[in-house]
Amino acid sequence: MGQIFIAALKEETPNLKHFHYSGVGKINATIKIMELISKFQPNEIINYGTAGSTNQNLSGLVECTKFVQRDMDARGLMNFKLGETPFDTISKITYSNEGYICASGDSFVQSSVEIDCDIVDMEAYSFAKVCKLYNIRFKCFKYISDYANENSNNDWIDNCSKGAKLFSEIYPQLKI
Q1: Rounded-to-integer distance, Cα 68 and Cα 81, Å
Q2: Is residue 3 within 8 Å of 46, Cβ to Cβ?
Q3: Helix-strand-coil split of the chain, %, nearest 5
Q4: Superfamily of domain 3-174
Q5: 34: helix, coil or strand?
Q6: Contacts of residue 1, Cβ cutoff 8 Å, sequence gap at least 6
Q7: In whole angstroms, what is the distance from residue 164 CA to residue 171 CA?
Q8: pLDDT tens column, 78-130
Q9: Which residues sit opposite 34 in a β-bridge?
Q10: Which sequence spans correspond to the domains of the chain?
């Protein structure tokens, strides 16, 4: 199989076909993508989903090309930086200098985050790292559903499915 399309939840992809679903969070994302790689041996994985923006001027569908973990915090151990995994050679993943920085973590963001990023989600770092380790092309598109603030929970519920239409417009260009 050449490509795999993956999202966290079916609710993010109404009327979109050919998607696999990981569930929410970095562990679920890692387990699912490893299962899919083992079964299909793809040469490209494309992630679509929702995300909160840390920039009030960012909206719509965006492409993420840089990925960090916003909740990896080992700063108290030998002066590691926020987002740096101790004793791991891969902490920040960059596929291109064009595009946005996505910071993944296992919490739903409703306030500012300490790490430098444009958007926040709960799965993309896991997908990106596994693809990097297995030399699989990776593309990531996120629909800005909220602004990572005190209104995020209601905004996400209201906007969760709205980005699928925008993604469907670029979908034909992504198919190989």
Answers
A1: 12
A2: yes
A3: 25, 25, 45
A4: Nucleoside phosphorylase domain (3.40.50.1580)
A5: helix
A6: 40, 41, 42
A7: 10
A8: 889 999 999 999 989 999 999 999 999 998 888 889 999 999 999 999 999 99
A9: none
A10: 3-174
